[in-house]
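Subject: Protein entry, chain in single-letter code together with its fold tokens

Area: Proteins and the way their chains fold up in space.

Attached in line: The record itself begins immediately under this heading.
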Amino acid sequence: MPKQKTHSGCKKRFHITANGKVKFARPGKGHFLTKKSQNVKRKLRKGSYIAGKNTQNIKSLLAR
């Protein structure tokens, strides 16, 4: 049986922490930053974690 391949889009966007959580960068930090307030841009700097059933889906795409 062949090995499962890693999804290329997911490996660029998600990282699995040592505890098994799936971490991602908040979207909305690419362009049009002059319209956004400083508070919003500061909150976008921090990453966040995927919750619930989506964690299992992303881990399967990452072949973990």
About this structure: The domain at 8-61 is CATH 4.10.410.60 (Factor Xa Inhibitor).
